[in-house]
Fold each of these.
Amino acid sequence: MRLSIILVLTTVALFLASCSSGGNQQSLGSTFIGGVEGITIGFEQGQPPAEVYDSGQQSFSITLKVQNKGEFDVPKNKTTITLSGFNPTTFNRTRTQLSQSSPDDLLALRKLPTGDIQEQPPTQVEFPNMNHNGKVIGLEQKVPVEARICYEYKNTATTNLCVRKNLITPATGGVCEVVGSKEASNSGGPIQITAIKTSARSQNSLGIAFTISHQGTGAVYKLLSQCSQSQQQRVEEGRILVKIDSGLTGLSCTGLSDTSTSGTTFQGVAKFMGTPLTITCTQQISDLNDYSQPVTITTEYNYEEIATTTLTVKSSTG
C-alpha cells in the first residue's frame, strides 16, 4: 500500500513539474489547417477524348475540374481559366471563347467543430462545341492542350512577439523569450512564412526577421496582374503584397518596395526571385512590460496553375 501511495505522489509531482517548466513556451496550436496548395486544375476523364477525327466529323468538349485546396475563398470573378497550346480557329473557336471565369465561387477548406476537414467538391468548367475543321496530313496529328487558371489568393501567418520589461537582459524565466526562433502558423496556400526570428535591437526596440517561401507548383504574379505572359507584364512576375500587423505602432521593415503604414500595419511589395526571401523589421516598444504580442503577416498575390494533356486528331479518310 505504501509503495502505491509513493508511486501516485511521484506521478503527480512529475505532472506538475512538467506544467511548470512549460510555462514560457508560446505554442500557437492548430490555428490553421495548413498545406501548400491553393486552386488545383485538371482535365475531367475523357474530356477531351483521347482521339477525335478531323474535317468537322466529331464535336467534343474539354472540361476542367478546379478545386480550392487552401484556406482562402476565391470569388468566381477573381478567376480566369484559359485553354491554349493550339490555334483556336482549327477547332472552330475564337480565342475569346477559350477563356472564362469559374461558374462558382471556389470556397476554402473548413475545419468543423468535430475537427474534421470539410472540402468543397470540384467545380466543372466546360468548353463545348470543339470540332477540328481542318484536314490532317497523314494518318494523325498530336495536338497539345494547355489549361491555365489565374486567380487571386491570400495567405495568413501568425506568430508571437515577446516583450519584456528589460529587452536587453530580461529576468530569468518569465512569460516568453525575447531572442530566438518563433513558431509560425500558416494558412493553406502556396506562399508560406517560415524561419521567424526575433532579437533585441535596443532598450526599447525589437528585431523581427521572417522568410517568404514559395512552396507551390505554379507561378506568382502581382495582385490584379492577370498572370499576363506578355513581355511588358513580365515585370509583374514574383511580386507579392506583404502586410505585417504587430498590433503596436512604430513598426518599419526593409526588403520591400512601395511601402506604407496604416495604424499598426506596415505593408510593401516583395519581389520574389525564386529563392526564399528574408524581410527584416524593427518594432519600437513604448510599453515595456512582460507580455506576448500576437503578430499577423499576410501575403496577397495572383497565382497561376497549369495542366496539360495531348489530343490525337485522326484522319477521317484514312
Note: The helical segments are 2-21.
Amino acid sequence: MVTDHRSAPVWAMIPCRAGSQRIPRKNVTPLPGLRFGLFERKVRQIEMASMIEGIVVSTDDPEIVQAVDHLRPSLSKPVQVVMRPERFAAAGPVDEFVGYIPEIMPDGHVMWLHVTSPFFDANCIDRSIQVYFAKLLEGFDSLMTVTRVQTFFWDEGGGPLFDRSKARWPQTQDLPPVFASNFAAFLGSRAVFLETRDRVGHRPYLEELSQLEAFDVDWPSDLQVVSQLLEVGLNQGI
C-alpha cells in the first residue's frame, strides 16, 4: 500500500536570528514596497503558496515579532512566533538549533525557508513541495535546494581539482558537477527531522535552482541588488 504523504500538511518554518554580523538588521531592513524587508517578502511569498498550511517563525528579534503583529491581519494563513532560546541566539555552529526545530513544529511536513532567498517565490515553494512528494514515492526522504557548479577548482596549494590528463582546459559543461546547498529550502517530514536531528534525512533529493531562484543575500551589496531589482519591478508580484 502506497502512503499518501499529501494528506499531511506542510508547515513553513522561518528562522530569523537577531544580530546579523555582516548586514545590521538584515531581515527587516526596508525594501521598495516592503516595510519589513526580506522578512515581509518571504511571508508574502508563503502566503501566496497554495500548498503551505501555516507558518512558524523562530526568532529572538523584537523587530520580527513586531513585523508579524503588523502583517498577521492581512494574512489568511496562521503565523506562530516561537521565541528562540538564548542558547541558540549567538552566531556559530547551528547543529543543536537544527535538532531543536522539529520539537516546535506541528505534525506533518516541515519546509525550512530562509528570508535571504528573496527570489525563491510562491511558485518555487509549490513546485518544490510537488517535487518532494513525487520523490518520496521514489525512495527519497527529504529535499534540499542546490546550485549546480561546474568550474575549475584548485586547492590552496595550487593543485587542480579536476582532471587535466585529457585536456588542460576542457569545456566547463564537460567537468563533473558538484552541488552546493543554497539554503533556499529544506523539506522533510517532522518525523524524519526528529530522527536525524538535521535539516535533511538519510536520502535527500537535490533540487536544482536557477541562478535567480538561488540568489542569496549574504553581504550588503546583495541587499542593494535586491533593492534595485525590486525598484525596477523584477519579481514584484512576489
Note: DSSP finds six helices and seven strands in the chain.
Amino acid sequence: MPIICENIGVAYFNIPKCASTSLKSYFYEIKTGQPRPSVLDVKNRERYIRYMASPFKKINWQDYEGYDKIAVVRHPVRRIVSFYNDKIVRRKHVQNKIGKIKVKAALKAHNLPIVPDFDTFVNHFDKYRFASWVVRGHTYPLSYFLGTDPSIFTTIYGMHELHLLHQFILSRGGSQGVEFYHKNSVKMNEKRRLRLEDVTASTRARLCARYAEDLEIFGQYFETDTEQLISPKGG
C-alpha cells in the first residue's frame, strides 16, 4: 500500500528492490514523526512493520487526488541482480522460508538447485517464480505496480536520483531532522556477491527482453543505458 504523508501532501508508491525498505522507513518517519517500528522474528532478527506494495489494478486512485504521487524505479537488470544477492544468496529465502518443503519439491521436479547460480536462476526464472512467493513478489515488472502511464505520477525518480527526492521533500518542509540512508543494502562477503559486470551479456539480454515493457515505459528514468548493460563490458 502507498504511504500517504498528509502533512506534506505526498503519496509514495513503493516497489520491491527499488530502495523500498529505506524509503518506507523514510516516509513513515516523515508521516508520523517516529522511526518506523520493527519486531523481532522467531530467530531474533529485526523485521520492520510492512507496507506491502500494491498491484496497480487494486489501487483506488481517487484516494490520492490532490497528492503529489511519487515512485522510485530501477533498471530491471540491476533490480534482479539486487534481488538475487539479497534474497537468494545472502538470506537464502527460497531455502529457509515457511513452506520450503513444497518449494524444494517444486524445484526438485525440474532438477533445479535451491541456491542456483545467476545464469541458472534467470534461465529457469518462471520455475523459480512458480516455486516461491518470495521470488514472485519481488520480481513482478514495474508496470505491475505502477501501470503503463507514467503521467499518473507527479515525479518518478531513478535510483541515482534519490538525492533529488530528498531535496523535493525538504522543499515541502517534511524531512527536517529525518535521515535518509540505505537500510537494506546487501551486506555480504564480496566473494559471494554477484557483481553486475560478472553477469554474462546473454543473461543481461534475456532479462532485458523479459522486462521489455518496463524498459519502454520507464527507460527514461533508469540510471543505466540498456545497451550499456547488454554489452559485455556494461555495468
Note: The chain has one domain: 3-230.
